[in-house]
Input
Amino acid sequence: MTGTVLILGGRSDIGVAVAHRFAMLGHPVALAARNAENLEATRSDIAIRHGVEATLHEFDVLETKALAAFVDSLGSLPEIVVCVAGAMGKQRESECDPEAATLVMRTNYEGPAVALGLLAERMVKRGHGTIVGISSVAGDRGRGSNYIYGSAKAGFTAFLSGLRNRLSKSGVHVVTVKPGFVATRMTDGMDLPGALTTTPDVVADAIYRAVSLRRSVVYVKPLWRPLMSIIRAIPEPIFKSLSL
Output
């Protein structure tokens, strides 16, 4: 299978890594991002290095009213869509500033869900395709340290789960990927725990395997699965006393 891979959020470190991972296996790639023309060097590198078609597409996940037109502008429908769009924001700023909180919520949930919903409907009509959404372990349980971001990712996780359930007999497969901590520009300067931190290339490999094996929910670092199971199981009175 060497169908086109559309990457929503193609400017991100993970998005670029995903593009290279699929391109090296012969997939044409389409990078969608704001100010997409500034990604020409990245597009050219992918095309030359891997000998595949690589295209740029203007895309703003916050412009939800324009997303249908964006899908129309693609021409042919991609075989695989990977949504990497998102922004962590700053918890304290989001607590105090409704606009900052809204931006985090819309960037991580509303926009991605609307975009993937539109693409899913067209894939259903075609009869096949794969949708990959990058969610987060932060959505597995609300924690005081990042509940604005976590609540948005929780919503996105629920959306992907429901979409996967609805489309299970349609020929369209939906994958939820939870990377955990990733060493990227977004986390630069943060004190990340080594045992729970991965890289964009490892995330890209995990996405490729998930698509190939038609997995449903993937924790990129396996340790996250039992860890989050424990965190979800902590009784609320005890959980409230913890600094998480």
In short: The longest helix spans residues 98-126. The domain at 5-239 is CATH 3.40.50.720 (Rossmann fold). The longest strand covers residues 172-178. The chain has a mean pLDDT of 95.
